[in-house]
């Protein structure tokens, strides 16, 4: 019990950890609220309250992201053009992902400021642009994970061919390491695909399934992605946008 409490406190004391918890609560509330809103009239009041709570948490995260530009810039700058990356495909997919992430923040800031009536521009186009950049980042992330899986498969085959040259324990450790990396990339793909489904839903009407998801489905996809993010947090290294 104490260990679980200490873990939760440690997570909430970090910005990224707190954001992931808020994100999970946001989508979880939307999932439950969406389900209850489709039930009997007696449950609709609770469902509506949960949807409003979800909207407030989403707004909270948007405001907090006003301060993410500098950290994202520092991450992009440290990666640069990925000269330390051994595979050219991974290198350029990562660079393009960083560009999309970096541009996402100012576009969202403009949209938020327009909605808050701090500036006199229409927010719709800026929300669309920020969502488009988020979707592009997610798609690039999926492609990068698929590339990593391909390289891991090649590495595993190479190690199988040289198995007789390795000690039994070394081979088992290497195989276990590769399997752990494969699991992490598969989870990243599932998380990104869930978020990509929502990103398309929030695009202007007429684009694929934009605007067609019920609240509970948006919540389900977001909760799935958020729980994967929480699970992977000790191993995560850097910058996804939402």
Automatic annotation (TrEMBL):
Pfam families: PEX11. Keywords: Membrane, Peroxisome, Transmembrane, Transmembrane helix. It comes from the Eukaryota. GO terms for cellular component: peroxisomal membrane. InterPro entries: PEX11, PEX11C_met. The chain crosses the membrane at residues 132-152. It is found in: Peroxisome membrane. Its main location: membrane. Signal peptide: none annotated. One of its GO terms (biological process) is peroxisome fission. This is Peroxisomal membrane protein 11C. It comes from Albula goreensis.
